[in-house]
Write a structure and sequence with these properties.
Blueprint lengths: L1 H6 L2 H8 L4 H14 L3 E4 L4 H13 L4 E2 L5 E4 L13 E5 L10 E3 H12 L7 E9 L8 E7 L2 H10 L1 E2 L1 H7 L6 E6 L16 E5 L4 E5 L4 H4 L1 H17 L2 E3 L2 E6 L5 E7 L6 H5 L5 E4 L3 E6 L2 E6 L3 E5 L9 H7 L5 E4 L2 E3 L2 E3 L10 E4 L2 E4 L18 E5 L8 H5 L4 E9 L9 E3 L3 H10 L2 E3 L11 E3 L12 H11 L8 E5 L17 H12 L6 E3 L2 E3 L2 H12 L5 H8 L1 E2 H17 L6 H21 L2 E2 L1 H6 L1
Parallel strand pairs: 1-6, 3-19, 4-5, 4-10, 7-9, 9-11, 14-25, 25-29
Antiparallel strand pairs: 2-3, 6-7, 6-8, 10-11, 12-16, 13-14, 13-15, 16-17, 17-25, 18-24, 19-24, 20-21, 22-23, 26-29, 27-28, 30-31, 32-33
Bound molecules: guanosine-5'-diphosphate, phosphoenolpyruvate and manganese (II) ion.
The site of guanosine-5'-diphosphate has 18 residues, from helix 10 and strand 18.
Subcellular location: Cytoplasm
Cofactor: Mn(2+)
Protein name: Phosphoenolpyruvate carboxykinase [GTP]
Length: 622
């Protein structure tokens, strides 16, 4: 306390003193001394403090005002536009190698990051912020403290998370909290991080602390988002619940029936666009906690806002988010094109100017980067940050429910051009967890640095964030069912099937129909066709839903093409997945191999009888 009294001015010191937690005091004193900021601001839950942070983002030039009130734009460095997987490491004692996890010796990592952070805030202001993960005052709640010299990061967190200063005060010494220490490092004239060669994101799993330096992109810096996610996965696996890369939404069934679904797709594969679809209600778009209560799986959104991809958002397909983005509510646009105070982005469905300012600085149509690549108007991973309270279709009751909502169905999906059908249902929990979750593969996207379009193993869409050995994670999933009286149904979707010429087989809004079908299946309202890989919809049910939901004719030809069981591709996939689990992952539950083997057998038998490509009509006739 004495150290803190020396380091903080009176007003800020009093704010900290009101929290009775010596561990917090120690952590703050140590880091404030180490980071050497010129000034420290402590954020309470007051409107005034939140305003202060918003104003500082403008004052320091990290954000600029746009024409519409409450809209701002923020830019990240041209080479800091996505998650940096290479430099994101889990610090573990002895640097133990864990397959698929990027680990580093804890002592070495802490030493390196401390050196990079020594005095890094000289001449800058440090913001100390308190938030919670999950709904307040509930079993889901996890308090967290964020230290950052980026007012943009702090501002984003105020939009995305529930305030936690009062919670820290309430919990006092009992608070077991996560810690995040971030510095954007030295900035260039555009106020973007300069020393990208020294960009590091180190996750200390022992101390439940994450350090991030020389970067600004939200996926690398917003502590409570993908950084905390590594810590919550570890906690969930230890305690026997699920912390998932999933949206949470309400699908509206017949006669006002409400059914909640979660959905795990890798970054840039449709979580946000599914959760925001017009017919239904959004609860969350990225991170969900699922816990068993009295034998029922209940889900809660970890966040209260959306950090969503803006490319492709257009008035036809995304009327709700389009409206939100054009209303005067608080929004941060990042890495978009700005002309005369208005934001523009790729594929927005309206004409966009041929010059302005974007993530590359002054921009004109045809401008090339150092590598000779033409720079599009906005970055593919350009985003918007907005609170869910501004969505006309938010389910606020579900968002704030201290016990979460009952999960009726869980969906897995990815970018797969040729193997999985658009939608199918697992035979049971085990079948879904193994063949849909643990076997998920998806093409890489612009949400991470590196090559795009490469098919990659991505179990449960969570591999980038995995913080425990994969075998343990899957065992926890399989065992979760034993805590339930009634397990959620498991489904898999694929929005990204293509024909021989590379054209999409589905329209972006077809997912509205798949959702309605899944809702009916959760309640046993429609029959389905049994295939070797699970249950698929009957043509008649989809044709009716296409008419009712989208007012569209759905042809038998389209159905047949989309739902054909592609035996060679499916078998090849089982080979790939089995090989990975046999050769690369340790301590895999034996059940996983059994379930894969059963699926292979079913596929081989079906091929014997019907050939390589099996029409759903043939299977229905059986
Ligand atoms: N072809 C196709 N693209 C889609 C579909 N749904 C979403 N997308 C695109 O996928 C990208 C990422 O979607 P988003 O929902 O933000 O993904 P998230 O990162 O998982 O939340 C956007 O560019 C969307 O336009 C779909 O059904 N079909
Ligand atoms: C913030 C992210 O989430 P997503 O792309 O899943 O929306 C990210 O992956 O960097
Ligand atoms: Mn998203």
């Amino acid at each position: 306390m004495e150290r803190l009294e020396r380091l903080l001015d009176k007003e800020q010191f009093e704010k900290i003193r009101a929290i009775n937690n010596p561990e917090l005091h120690e952590f703050l004193a140590e880091w404030i001394e180490w980071l050497e900021p010129d000034k420290v601001f402590v954020c309470t839950d007051s409107e005034e403090d939140e305003h202060y942070v918003r104003w500082k983002a403008l004052y320091y030039g990290e954000e600029k005002l746009l024409e519409t009130p409450n809209h701002t734009v923020h830019y990240d460095n041209y080479y800091d536009q996505a998650r940096d997987k290479t430099n994101t490491k889990l610090l573990v004692p002895g640097g133990k190698e864990i397959p698929f996890l990027n680990t580093k010796d804890r002592d070495e990592g802490l030493k390196e990051i401390r050196e990079l952070m020594k005095g890094v805030m000289r001449g800058k202001e440090l913001f100390v912020c308190f938030f919670v993960l999950g709904p307040k005052n509930s079993v889901f709640t996890i308090p967290a403290v964020q230290l950052t010299d980026s007012a943009y990061v702090a501002h984003s967190e105020f939009i995305l998370y529930r305030k936690g200063y009062e919670e820290f005060k309430r919990l006092g010494r009992q608070a077991r909290f996560f810690r995040f220490v971030h510095s954007a490092g030295e900035l260039d004239e555009r106020k973007t991080s300069k020393n990208l060669d020294k960009r590091r994101i180190y996750i200390d799993l022992v101390g439940e602390t994450v350090y991030s330096v020389n970067t600004q992109y939200g996926g690398n810096t917003i502590g409570l988002k993908k950084l905390a996610f590594r810590l919550t996965i570890q906690k969930a696996v230890k305690e026997g619940w699920l912390s998932e890369h999933m949206f949470l939404m309400r699908v509206n069934g017949p006669n006002g029936r409400k059914t909640y679904f979660t959905g795990a797709y890798p970054s840039m594969c449709g979580k946000t666009s599914t959760a925001m679809i017009s017919w239904e209600n959004i609860v969350g778009d990225d991170l969900t906690f699922i816990m068993p209560f009295n034998g029922v799986a209940r889900g809660a959104n970890v966040e209260k806002g959306v950090f969503g991809i803006i490319q492709g958002v257009n008035p036809e397909d995304d009327p709700i988010i389009w409206k939100v983005l054009h209303s005067p509510v608080e929004i941060i646009f990042s890495n978009v094109l700005i002309k005369d105070g208005k934001p523009y982005w790729n594929e927005m469905g309206v004409e966009i100017p041929n010059e302005g300012e974007n993530h590359s600085g002054k921009w004109w149509c045809g401008k090339k980067d150092k590598e000779g690549n033409e720079i599009p108007p906005s970055h593919k991973n350009a985003r918007f940050t907005v609170s869910l309270e501004h969505f006309p279709n938010v389910d606020l009751e579900a968002l704030e429910a201290p016990c979460g909502v009952e999960v009726g169905g869980m969906i897995f999906g990815g970018r797969d051009k040729d193997t999985w059908p658009p939608v199918r249902e697992a035979f049971d929990w085990k079948h879904g967890v193994v063949t849909m979750g643990a076997a998920l593969e998806s093409e890489t996207t612009a949400a991470t640095l590196g090559k795009e379009g490469v098919r990659a193993f991505n179990p449960m869409a969570i591999l980038d964030f995995m913080s425990v050995p994969l075998g343990d994670y899957i065992r926890n999933y399989l065992e979760f069912e034993k805590k339930l009286r009634k397990a959620p149904k498991i489904f898999a979707v694929n929005y990204f099937l293509r024909d021989e010429n590379g054209n999409w087989l589905n329209h972006k809004l077809d997912k509205a129909v798949w959702l309605k079908w899944m809702e009916l299946r959760v309640h046993g309202d429609v029959d389905a066709i049994e295939t070797p890989i699970g249950y698929i919809p009957k043509y008649e049910d989809l044709a009716r839903l296409f008419r009712e939901v989208l007012d569209k004719e759905y042809t038998r030809e389209a159905y047949e093409k989309q739902f054909t069981v592609r035996v060679p591709e499916l078998l090849a996939k089982i080979e790939r997945i089995e090989k990975i689990y046999r050769e690369q992952v340790r301590e895999v539950p034996e059940e996983l191999f059994q379930v894969l083997e059963e699926e292979r057998k079913r596929l081989l038998e079906a091929r014997e009888r019907y050939g390589d490509y099996i029409s759903p009509f043939v299977l229905e006739g059986e």
